[in-house]
Amino acid sequence: MGFSSALQGRAAHDALLNRQEAELKLLETMKRCLAQKAKCDREYAVSLAAVTQQGLKIDRSDDLQGNHVMRAWRSFMEELDHTAKQIRTNAEQLETVCHEKLASLYQEKRRVRKQYQEEHTKIATQFSHLTEDVARKKSEYQKHLDYYKLLRGRFEEHIKSGRSGRKLDDVIDKYQKACRKLHQAHNEYVLLITEAVEVEKDFRTILLPGLLEHQQSLQEGFIQAWSNLLQEIANLSDMTSDKFVDIQRRIESSIAGINSTEEYREFTEKHKTSPTPPVIFQFDESLVEDSLGKLQANTLTVDNLTVDWLRGRQTELEGTIKDLQDRQSKLCGEPNGTNGATGSSPAAVSPASTPGTKPSTPILNGSSTSNGMTLSTNRPLHEEEWFHGVLPREEVVRLLRNEGDFLVRETTRNDESQTVLSVCWNGHKHFIVQTTAEGHYRFEGPAFPSIQELIVHQYQSELPVTGRSGAVLRKPVLRERWELSNDDVILLDKIGRGNFGDVYKAKLKSSKNTLVAVKTCRMTLPEEQKRKFLQEGRILKQYDHPNIVKLIGICVQKQPIMIVMELVAGGSLLMFLRKNASTLGQRQMMGMCRDAAAGMRYLESKNCIHRDLAARNCLIGSENIVKISDFGMSREEEEYIVSGGMKQIPIKWTAPEALNFGKYTSLCDVWSYGILVWEIFSRGDTPYSGMSNSMARERIDEGYRMPAPEGAPPEMYRLMLKCWSYEPESRPHFDEICSVVDALLLCTKD
């Protein structure tokens, strides 16, 4: 069924026009989006080419002559450059498709739509005019007929009355004229009806079907051309095309050429030296000549003066030997002497971590079950090691890595607390523990008096939690060592307020009432905000450096969630600078700059981008040691691209490339470090004082840089200017900054 037979009605005509208009809109969208894709591909190709240029700049390449890995790396970079060129070529061709072919298709479709609309309107108007002419002619016919009947009646009346003379002649004349006009109107009406019948037939069987059939042919041709264009676009976007596959094959071939056994043969031959001569160590017997024979060379002296020391030394050595034997046993269990730092084989994984097996050691204190999981009916749920409290779902997903890993947690929905079993099984499944009318707990199987018994039953039976999910419990995930109990933390004084909640001075019961700082998270915050709150703790828990604030633990057993950190007595560096502005000496301020640089060097080595380095986010401890704090915006990546608004970005501390393109690297932290140094030497002044955020940003792009603070050493101001280089590649890394600041500190006097 085609257009000619199915789309002759007015509603179908309107629908066809609407369809064509919608297709034109779709073409506009495709053209716009594909142009944007071509732009993105071109920019990506430029960035990729820049990466290859950096990758080919190999330091000390002369020392790597004959190095197989360097050859493979160079080949990899060259092929990556070929990839960039191919992507750029495809992007240029894609732009041609957008600007020429898609635009041409769009213009042609619009022209055909307009032509169809005009032709349809033309023949429809002709038929409409003919219909109106027939109606008008019929009306004229009726008028002539009525007038004819009137005059005929008058004529017959005069004949019957026998009248004669002039009046009769007038009546006869008018009657004849009326009769003539009636006959003429009749003939015209007959001819018009005949014409209308023929025109209607042609309109219905020839004109309209022909127009619709032609329109269908054109539209189907457009669709075919459209399809061909899409196929061309798909080919240009295909990263598995022969050209890219060839590039990948060459990369793999160069890597396969690395031969570890041959790698150092040429190097060894080139740098071969004579073996190191032995160094002979002998007891100097002259030392015991004056000992009256009590001390003998190469012999231990055992008497009441040395026996205790020897016993202690013996115990110490025995412990050292045992430690070495334990290390040897572990290393022997790892193939090729590898460890977790370089990857491990399946043989090195303990049975407890293998999916489908149960841990061989009890994971809870209490009565042990037959499968190794233990059960205590007296202990509350929150004391179980596999209960993780109100840990947010995102953190739970991070902990559940292998099929069958599980834990139990709490969540709040509609102001109601619910216990949830989370399992890694074909993704991550979360099952709410159901409560029966009797107060027992169940999923789909039998009910139990306690949640612990329910979980142990599911674990022992190896039955799916629900038939639909098929999820089976294989390995409980225990609380990590940094997950503290909320009850161990006693909040004392409120010392501040953060983005997520209040900050308290507190003490820990479990550590002889150690004083700590505690950040709390408001219970009313959405899950996304709680996840961001815990992000700071997740980053800090793996860092250990004297110039980084130390994480003690995270409390997620119940609300409120808390991050427990070391208490840095001096508080905010910014407040310290302002409070002690009149007494600060240059050496003291240089020490602060050195501490901050050391902390940031450590973070850079861990691929951590702080993103909010400022005096307000540093703490001052004993002996005026500066510690980097507030990792709420940090990211553990070499490069981080942010999308979204600029609401929470500290404009005056942030590098231009981050503000303009959302691109963060450690070199953005270097820019912020320059601002921090300026804050230190200005004793807590506000950067770009008197300028709004937008004005400061505009002035920076124009090349403006803040003047040196009063009394700042010229060398430190030069370092600030280096940190504020507009191009990130021109800024020093924190390694270099530390070297500069250390050297200046040595020759600085108060």
3D architecture notes:
The protein has 750 residues and is an alpha+beta fold. It folds into four domains: 12-235, Substrate Binding Domain Of Dnak, Chain:A, Domain 2, CATH 1.20.1270; 379-474, SHC Adaptor Protein (2-Layer Sandwich); 484-564, Phosphorylase Kinase, domain 1; 570-745, Transferase(Phosphotransferase) domain 1 (Transferase(Phosphotransferase), domain 1), CATH 1.10.510.10. Helix content is 50%, strand content 10%. The chain has helices spanning 3-6, 10-56, 68-161, 166-237, 242-256, 265-270, 307-332, 393-399, 451-461, 527-540, 573-579, 586-605, 656-661, 666-681, 693-701, 714-723, 734-746, and strands at residues 367-368, 374-375, 405-413, 416-424, 428-432, 434-435, 441-442, 475-476, 483-484, 489-497, 502-508, 514-520, 551-555, 562-566, 618-620, 626-628, 640-641, 663-664. Strands 9-13-14-12-11-10 form a six-stranded mixed sheet, covered by helices on one side. The chain has a four-stranded mixed sheet with strand order 5-4-3-8, with no helix packed on it. Strands 1-2 form a two-stranded antiparallel sheet. Helix 14 runs antiparallel to helix 16. The protein starts with a helix and ends with a helix.
Task: Describe the structure concisely for a colleague.
With 750 residues, this protein is α+β, with helices and mostly antiparallel strands. It contains 17 helices and 18 strands.
Protein topology:
Elements lengths: L2 H4 L3 H47 L11 H94 L4 H72 L4 H15 L8 H6 L36 H26 L34 E2 L5 E2 L17 H7 L5 E9 L2 E9 L3 E5 L1 E2 L5 E2 L8 H11 L13 E2 L6 E2 L4 E9 L4 E7 L5 E7 L6 H14 L10 E5 L6 E5 L6 H7 L6 H20 L12 E3 L5 E3 L11 E2 L14 H6 L1 E2 L1 H16 L11 H9 L12 H10 L10 H13 L4
Parallel strand pairs: 3-8, 9-13
Antiparallel strand pairs: 1-2, 3-4, 4-5, 6-7, 10-11, 11-12, 12-14, 13-14, 15-16, 17-18
Helix pairs in contact: 2-3, 3-4, 3-5, 12-14, 12-17, 14-16
